[in-house]
Fold each of these.
Amino acid sequence: MYKQRTSSTIPFGYELDSDNRTLKPIQDELDAIKTVSDLIKNNGLSLREGSEWVTYKTGRSLSHVGLKKIIDNGRLDRESTELPD
């Protein structure tokens, strides 16, 4: 699911599309965030452990504060992480 770019910052799990106006999802990153989010919510991991795991799994740096913002704002619950057919 492509989404319109709304700021100069590109959110974790997305990359700028060739038109420089829309964001293209990076499914591996979105899946990693969803997995770690569930583990954090169930008290299986701390935010720091979760951010380190996401960074290790995806190769893209994500701080524990950034991960907390993603989890707290409910972005994962509102957006489908599946690409359209």
Note: The mean pLDDT is 84.
Amino acid sequence: MPGRQLPFLSDEGLQATANVVARNEYGEPVDGAIAVERALTIYLDKQEIVTLMTLGNHPELLILGWLRNQRMIDDIEAIKAVQVDWETESVAIVTHAGVENLEEKLGRKTVTTGCGQGTVFGDLMADIDAIRLQAPRLKQSSIYALLQALNEYNEIYKNAGAVHGCALCSDASGIELFIEDVGRHNAVDAIAGHMWLEDMDGSDKLFYTTGRLTSEMVIKVALMQIPVLLSRSGITAMGLEIAQRVGVTLIARAKGRHFLVYHGGELIEYDAMPPAKPQSRSRDTRQAPD
């Protein structure tokens, strides 16, 4: 972006799947693909921080988003370089002037429910009380259109399974970016990295994930200033509590023409309701008196 001093980024994205031959239930050989899980150890100014498990298809975006969502670094211009080296399975992050209070941040670690066990450094709830999002009105027909469009994505999942996908969406542009990784926390971090790099505003966006809506997912989306979170999976009680505190519209179990709005239901314009459900038969099987 003009006027911004962005970090140097390597370009080391790898193929996310590998070809294999398996045998089916009849003992027949079947050509297929599997997701390739890779270790990537983060070194921040030469200090080892943590090892992430990732497909490795968007490593630089993943690292940028991880730094932002962990609140390690607030200003992208503070980063001098992000260089991925797959020979050593590591990424070297170099800053211009170091990271303030790094040891204190590293001293507070939370193991989350992220696939493969995600880790959050620092206070998980830090900055949440300062966030108040203005969620927009959302048409039911727009939700259905988005879900239909998403059927064209999930390429790695369709070929190999074993991954989660996340999408950055808007009413104006539809699906702007779709990223898959072995864990939903990696996919959301990579999208956060893209937004940070491009200096994108999240206030007119909608975030989709195939994974469950936990506290970690809601917090990350709120930090990205995105007011609507949509998932085909379920939610946790803490995820709902945080969504209520910060103003994230929370839509889960979204598949086909079904969805459940756990927070922000008053903001949905029900303009495309499916046909009425058939009434279920009464469970009372006692015969009425003659």
Note: The radius of gyration is 21 Å.
Amino acid sequence: MGNVYTNAKKDLTTTSVTTLYTAPALTTSIVKSIVVSEDSGNADTITLTITDAESSPATFSLYKTKAISANATAELLTQPLVLKTGEILKVTAATANRLHVVASILEIS
């Protein structure tokens, strides 16, 4: 199969934990970028976690209540993030209908 470039996008319309991306079977995923945009004119916060079913505890915080300014865009990664098969990136907004999230990913199989 080789290398496939893809992205994952979510409009965070609730305050529930939302799956942004799950690394596919037999694939190593390199997350190059995670951009968060606030589009309501109100500052908000986002939480970003990675879940690994093989670990205990299974959920690890990458950002815990990261502030996003009103009408601003923020890049959450300063370096690429490697995900193994089955690992899940999850995002949670403090307030519904304010944040959009886009991740740019390279899948290597």
Note: The chain has a mean pLDDT of 95.
